[in-house]
Amino acid sequence: MEIKNGRKAIYKGKEYRVLRIKGDKTKVELISHDEEDLVENGFELVYNERTKLPEIGIYSKIVPLEEIENAYSLRTIIWYKGRDFYIHNEAENGYFRVFGSWEFQKKHNLEIISVDGPNDLTLKIPKAEVEKVELEKEGILGFEVSEDERLMEIELD
Fold it and tell me: Can you tell which superkingdom this protein's organism belongs to (predicted)?
């Protein structure tokens, strides 16, 4: 199962990570990890601001908003013990990393990965105990998502 989180845009039929450009509501920056985009779609290498060296495997392109076919925000959600959690990412084999609370951690005796704030924890949840997985999709940048696309159940492998 692929965990999909973040802001995405469809450009020339392909999904990219999308970033707003500060102070410009007419353009967006697309991020790719596909080297073919350098030649085929006019992307450029991303340079590290501190070292001024290229970031290996990261490419970007500034495009006018009207060239974007669709844009949306994605969040992968798991259901565990009757409660929903946004998946941070996959931890080692057989576990998900999620954000939770001290109360939930104590009640279900979950392993703490990190303490992120006074009542914010990153917890390990066993995949085998997950009740279901859903993908939440919400339109961004003026784009809409149809009702049947807003929340889709996905297979857990």
Answer: Bacteria
